[in-house]
Amino acid sequence: QSPRAPLSRLEPGKFIDYSQLALRIEESREIQRRPLTYAEKILYAYTDELGVVERGKTQLKLRPQRIACQDATAQMAIIQFMSAGLQTTAVPTTVHCDHLIVGRDGQDKDLPNALNTHGEVYNFMSSASSRFGMGFWKPGAGIIHQIVLENYAFPGGIMVGTDSHTPNAGGMGMIAIGVGGADAVDVMAGLPFELTAPRIIGVRLTGQLSGWATPKDVINKLAEILTVKGGTGSIIEFFGPGSETLSATGQATICNMGAETGATTSIFPYSEAMTHYLRATDRHEIAQALGFASHELRADPGAQYDRVIEIDLSSLEPRINGPFTPDLSNPLSKFPDAIEKGSWPQELTAGLIGSCTNSSFEDMTRAASLAQQALDAGLKPQMPLLVSPGSEKTRETLHQDGTLQVFKDLESTLLTNACGPCCGSWDRQDMKKGTPNSIITSYNRNFTGRLDSNPATHIFLASPEIVMAKIFSRDLAFDPTKDTLLTPKGKEFRFQPPTGADLPSKGYATADQVYTAPPSTEQDRSGVEVQIMESSERLQRLSPFSPWSGNDFNNCVILIKAKGKCTTDHITPAGPWFRYRGHLDNISNNTLIGAVNAETHKINTVTNWLTGEDGDVPGTARKYRAESQPWVVIGDYNYGEGSSREHAALQPRHLGCVAIIAKSFARIHETNLKKQGVLALTFTKEEDYDRLVSSDRLSIGGLGGLEPGKPVVIAVDPTDGREGWKTEVTHTMTPEQILYFRSGSALNLMASRKNG
Ligand code: SF4
């Protein structure tokens, strides 16, 4: 027996050593001098320079073992990585083609359509994966989180992924954190991933699920308790005897939707179910090796949580969450009252099963058991049923097991193994936009317009079992646990509770044909040409940003003085701009078009202070760049809040921005600006925001002497006859981040270090 096992079946030469992990945990416990929760053990074991940690305060420098990127976010991440001139990603990295595939007619038509529409993007990602040593999961291979669970997740591991539902892997006892592209690029390039030590919310599970109750109901209930904000800055850690009773895939469902509470991630401690899942997915060596650390893969006795929530699985009822927010939760028995009170459309119009949240073998077999009961009684679905399998591996397993045939017998639409409707890529034909209607789904999100872009669609979230049973009645209030349906023969039919298996009895089918491994030697990889057409409007190679010239930024113009909220959506809106995410110059045409001009209260209208003409914001920025005129943005409170979208920092930098000066910054955006070499400066006197006029010229001085904690002096030179004045602004750059600024970007710095 060896404590060492391959990280996965697909990456020869990469190992996890469980003896080493147990040692590292012991060391970090000695440093902290207190019992540790399970999440803390894993986090601290993979942290550089560990000192005493204060949750909510200490900055951790984490060393994830892997990165998974979905196709929508991978494009710019890879393009940035390429610009650094590095040869291979520093940690194992995979790319997953799941978000771009539209769901409409089923896999047979939808997949070829996607290959046609997004061919150049897929070719780029596939060739770049081969060139830089990344594993490539082809279109139709499956949804990122399901593939990670089946191939890469293991107890005691740590990873990041460029998608919010990365925490899905917590079901296998892994710390798995969703990050923005900028953080992913850092990890790819060998930089640590920085994270404020999260608080730990403990969820103690007791009892055991039975009958209709499922893991989905656990998280639906927890979402109600925590609300959509209650997990922010925290890790949700499950423990207690109830956690031993759940399957690994059920635990993944729960961790997946922990994202709906804003949690950094969610995690279950090691249990036998994880070993069973590892073996069923052909990862026997890890299953064996983890015995060397299994005693550490749970919380220490006496470990302290910042808050403890108790959930009794035995008394849990099926729950339905929604509409419009995932934390509005009702038990099935009270749902009819809630429908009446909310005046929600009473007629159910579609059911959707699957996604990364709920497409496990267990989910599908239990849902199919209900479908079979109804089919046997002569009943037919009363509305379209769409099924999104999570992966080709699970789909093939379900095919071999006969479960898929049940879905075919229902005449459901078997979508591609991809996100499809779940990420809004649902070309829904049966409902006119704007028509109020109700749909039920086992997916995880239900914000306005999330699935079918119809703001009037009321999306309800439930277990696959409840979704399956409810599609046999058009009445949204139908309670399959007690109400009856009339069969064609006029008999009363009542569902019996679902049955299924948590794992396929013969293990999962192999479906490695949907994966492309990169060439194994650097020599072979270096011969691969990354495919980007010069004429492409969707993809563009990046040149490294210029290093700082060594001179102060004198006589800068103000591109816009923004008023009120200026989120990443105001800085770089999504919608139709989505397709340009891999083309920095094209997507830069949306830069700051949503920001409100503080002086005119107009959006996307500013004055070009070189010519006196009014114009749109990105166009004016381009004119400044053409004239080599440095420019800045003046921001209000919490500038850059919202998402971690790195484009919001890349685009201003691309168009010649040298500094953003704001009353305050959203933390992630501030970090992203620093990574791209843009100064993020904060007013020391907030009234200076009011004192500045858009036509003023600013000189940012003393840049040669930039030091952590040392203010920066700005000289204001009004052009309207007012007297000039000076003010101090602050920055939060560390010594390392000052080097980012000097090098032109964090990536430039990494590249210069790697290339000597
Ligand atoms: Fe995100 Fe839905 Fe895709 Fe899962 S299936 S990764 S939640 S879009």
Q: What is the correct CATH architecture of the largest domain?
A: 2-Layer Sandwich
Q: How big a fraction of the residues is strand?
A: 15-25%
* Number of DSSP helical runs: 25
How many β strands by DSSP?
Answer: 34
Q: How would you explain this protein's 3D organization?
A:
The protein is an alpha/beta fold. The protein folds into three domains: 4-314, Aconitase, domain 3; 318-493, 2-Layer Sandwich (Aconitase, domain 3); 553-754, Aconitase, domain 4. 30% of the residues lie in helices and 19% in strands. The protein has 25 helices and 34 strands. The strands form nine sheets. A seven-stranded mixed beta barrel has the order 25-29-30-31-34-33-32. Strands 9-8-5-6-7-24 form a six-stranded mixed sheet. The protein has a five-stranded parallel sheet with strand order 19-18-17-20-21, covered by helices on one side. Helix 22 links the parallel strand 30 (657-662) and strand 31. Helix 1 packs across helix 2 (38-45), helix 21 packs across helix 22 and helix 24 (735-743) crosses helix 25 (746-754). The protein is globular. The two termini are 41 Å apart. The mean pLDDT is 96. The site of iron/sulfur cluster has 13 residues, from helix 6.
Please supply descriptive tags for the structure shown above:
7-stranded mixed beta barrel, Aconitase, domain 4, 3 domains, 25 helices, 756 residues, 6-stranded mixed sheet, globular, alpha/beta, Aconitase, domain 3, binds iron/sulfur cluster
